[in-house]
Prior knowledge:
Layout: E1 5-8, E2 20-26, E3 35-40, E4 43-49, E5 55-59, E6 73-74, E7 79-80, E8 87-88, E9 94-96, E10 115-116, E11 118-121, E12 124-129, E13 157-163, H1 167-173, H2 180-183, E14 198-205, E15 208-215, H3 221-226, E16 231-237, E17 241-247, E18 252-261, E19 267-275, H4 284-309, E20 315-318, H5 323-340, E21 352-356
Antiparallel strand pairs: 1-20, 2-12, 3-4, 4-5, 5-10, 6-7, 7-8, 8-9, 11-12, 13-19, 14-15, 14-21, 15-16, 16-17, 17-18, 18-19
The chain binds FE2/S2 (inorganic) cluster and fe (ii) ion.
FE2/S2 (inorganic) cluster binds next to loops.
Amino acid sequence: xxxxxxxxxxxxxxxxxxNIWYYGLPAADLKxxxxxxxxxxxxxxxxxxxxxxxxFALRNLCPHRGxxxxxxxxxxEEVECPxxxxxxxxxxxxxxxxxxxxxxxxxxxxxxVLSYPVREVQGNLWIFFxxxxxxxxxxxxxxxxxxxxxxxxxxxxxxxxxxxGHLDQVFINFMDPSHAPFVHGAWWWRKxxxxxxxxxxxxxxxxxxTMRRHPLxxxxxxxxxxxxxxxxxxxxxxxGIRIETNYSDRHTFCFxxxxxxxxxxxxxxxxxxxxxxxxxxxxxxxxxxxxREFLNQDLRIVAKQSEGLKYKPPLTLIKEADYxxxxxxxxxxxxxxxxxxxxxxxxxxxxxxxxxx
Length: 357
Ligand code: FES
Ligand SMILES: [Fe+2]
């Protein structure tokens, strides 16, 4: 018999997955000829875009004396360190050490800086964190795509948040169905504390699981906005990706949430919206604050939870509302093992129906 609850801790196994794509930043935030410095997974990163439009990302530390490269200059092709003028190209190769004399036999190949693989799709810049920094090859793993939209699609709206919590903690919040009536109790969402029994089918999907597409039974925001007979599907994918697609009779509304750790205590959340409704754009000024408030409700509850987690309490996963959190840990462990053993990831999950209220 399966026990009705299991204990766990949000501190065990709280490392971040490597060898996987994380969301970097909205592609539109990186203009040609410009750079943007960020810290992700505790690593300083410099995102740049060449004058011709090609994005790249370097470890934001000069290998000479460790100064962050964003203090230097970018000429649209190469980054120049402000301290002694070493130059680095998009591959992280050192192209110039000005202090070397013309007859010097120093090999510039030995002074490169880590270059992270990046990809730009659907208006998002993804960055790959290699497992082995000494041997970074072009990843074979595909970047996550929002279904039903082409690779060239640009998002209609983007919202950014910094959640004061560990990636595991924040991602679990977004796969936790039973907080909704308590945390999202505003009039435009649903009546506070009103509980309905639900049964949802989940299938294993690439690097995660998917709540199978099903009709929305009750009146929700999607009914009001989409009209007709809306259906919903939610994809969860490592390392912290949630893609909710709402289908109406003729149109699609997609809500991509990506989580990228800044460090152990902070996680960047980017909400990216795609839709095909021609009439939705004029409603943006009205809907954007509602969506932002909805996510801020999650942010505030996570902030309060973080106060308690400082004391490292043992926690509980209860059946069946918390099974998705359990699956997340299973997936994460398997991904870590597969990376260590340098083998293919094998999804450990099976199709299952979950019930909760
Ligand atoms: S510290 Fe960068 S060139 Fe010396
Ligand atoms: Fe929530």
